[in-house]
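Quick start: read one record
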Amino acid sequence: MHCVAAKFVPRILTADQKQQHINVCTELHQLTCDDETFLSRVITGDESWVYSYDPETKRQSSQWQSLTSPRPKKARQVKSNLKSIIITFFDIKGIVHKEFVPTAKL
């Protein structure tokens, strides 16, 4: 005997839900077979968090110093607290619409 952990799944579907998924997939497959332009007319969307950066170029961070002085130090850039969501809609040809949604101030 040995201990076996259960596999994690997001949710367990009922028989009706599984059948509904099969019906929808079959219908979509039939639509793509009947109409070759069906998938080219599909628009989908995605949303992502975008963090704000204030990049400084190497030239902007340069300083005049004597030969004996140590080199200046510069910290790595980290994500800022300023962030917003970008919502993007695209089709087979590329981006159809994009929009930045600023976060609400508390």
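The radius of gyration is 26 Å.
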